[in-house]
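Workshop exercise sheet. Pairs work together: one partner reads the sequence aloud, the other fills in the structure field after running the prediction. Swap roles for the next sheet.
Pair: D.N. / O.F.
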Amino acid sequence: MTNNVLIAELERHIEKYFEESIPADYVYHDLYHTQSVVQSALDIARGYNLSEQELEVLQIAAWFHDVGYTEGQEGHEKRGCEKAREFLCKYQYPEASVKLVEGCILATKIPQSPRHLIEEILCDADLSHLGMDQYWDRCGRVRQEMLLIHGVVMSEQEWVDFEMGFMTRHRYHTEAGRKLYEKQKEKHVRQLYKRKLRLNPGISEESMEFPVPIKAKKKKKKKDKEDDIPKGLELKQLNLGRGVETMYRTTYRTHVNLSSIADNKANIMLSINAIIISIIVANLVPRLETNTKLIIPTLVLLAVCLVALVFAILATQPKVTEGVFTREDIENKRSNLLFFGNFYNMNLKDFEWGMTEMIKDSDFLYSSMTRDIYYLGVVLAKKYWYLRICYSVFMYGLIFAVCLFALAFLI
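Structure field:
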């Protein structure tokens, strides 16, 4: 089998494998990441005089380096080697070349440990996004994946510290990799550094250790400099730490508990009134012809139960929404993707894109959470208003009906 035919078969195999086997929660370690690593590996390899066999090994390793995520992050490199060996053995691939592929995959484990040029190229390609324009999208996906897979919620400050720590510790292994990505990577580090200064206005630049030289400050222009990441609204200038996250978490929990209490109260009224109505219809109504004095009290009690039943139903009745936000709404930050009623009719790609945009922008994220809490409060207020009417009608109506029954028996 020729080189091109094997790579084409491999590409189809990996695309199908990601679609069927890799969980959708891996929003960073997805098929797009693997395809980008393959392309970056070829871009870096152009700087070296590699043989056809070496290029083939490099591409195979790049395609297989993240297929081990079927069972989670831990040990995925080893599982990737097993999947690569299983595939290559079907095509009677030379054992020496299979071991080279396995070595390249294992070298990508963080901290990276390449032993020769092909492994160095793959390691640089695996983290090439650090020095590319897509960096902000990909690092936002890392943050989202940590939340979805590991339940790690990071504040803006913690995320910036995490990214700065990783970026400043990382070094490209090949000269070609440094030429392609180092300059843009330093730009991203400077942007992270500036964001950290904005999050910590009390910290001076001199007190912060910074490995990449920062150019002298210039007077601010009306438009943002090219070197600055897009700024949001007022929330981005605040230091949103654990206290704010605890406040949001507690508020959400309180709203959910209050909503559950309201539903339980409504269910109680539904059950009680349904039972009373069934008793009235089954026992009292057939006897009204012979006991005419019970007609008025019975009708009053029946009306009270029906009105209470209606308001109990209104308290639990779900509101149907359109379930769609456009990309324009998301770009203009007019959307709230945290409530299922706002996105259930959207396609998955648009929803994923919208969630990524929200996670990348702390102002958008926190303002969405604020809007979500507000509308939860509006819904709760309506629930409890209906419940108040329901309980009031039931209490006073029941007292009035019992008094009418007493008068009917006494007169």
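Discussion prompt: Residues 362-410 form the longest helix (49 residues). What would you look at next?
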